[in-house]
């Protein structure tokens, strides 16, 4: 027998009686397609690293609208975009965000 190496594996075939693995893969594909289509609409077809970093909160909101605790809530990109339509930058800072920022600044001033 030859030693296992990267070049000896040609294919991996998964046969499953009940189709659970296939169903899970199809659901994952549906969620990822919905996320990409939603982000594509939100970012006006500019789904690139820089645009995603600048709109990270919108990305998190889209993921939150699509999936919650492992349960798929929505798979229609139009609905996701509609729910996330309120721009994140239009919201003032919440009290929690101000408190977290103050804690970080105090921590760094004490560490110096």
From TrEMBL:
Protein localization: Cytoplasm; Golgi apparatus membrane; Cytoplasmic vesicle, COPI-coated vesicle membrane
Lipid bilayer topology: Peripheral membrane protein
Gene3D superfamilies noted in UniProt: 3.30.450.60
Pfam families, alphabetized: Clat_adaptor_s
SUPFAM superfamilies, per database record: SNARE-like (SSF64356)
Gene Ontology CC annotations of this record: COPI vesicle coat; Golgi membrane
InterPro entries listed in its UniProt record: AP_mu_sigma_su (IPR022775), Coatomer_zeta (IPR039652), Longin-like_dom_sf (IPR011012)
Residue stretches making up the AP complex mu/sigma subunit domain: 25-87
GO process terms (BP): intra-Golgi vesicle-mediated transport; intracellular protein transport; retrograde vesicle-mediated transport, Golgi to endoplasmic reticulum
Superkingdom per UniProt: Eukaryota
Key words, A-Z: Cytoplasm, Cytoplasmic vesicle, ER-Golgi transport, Golgi apparatus, Membrane, Protein transport, Transport
Oligomer and partners: Oligomeric complex that consists of at least the alpha, beta, beta', gamma, delta, epsilon and zeta subunits.
Function description: The coatomer is a cytosolic protein complex that binds to dilysine motifs and reversibly associates with Golgi non-clathrin-coated vesicles, which further mediate biosynthetic protein transport from the ER, via the Golgi up to the trans Golgi network. Coatomer complex is required for budding from Golgi membranes, and is essential for the retrograde Golgi-to-ER transport of dilysine-tagged proteins. The zeta subunit may be involved in regulating the coat assembly and, hence, the rate of biosynthetic protein transport due to its association-dissociation properties with the coatomer complex.
Entry's family note: Belongs to the adaptor complexes small subunit family.
Name of the protein in question: Coatomer subunit zeta
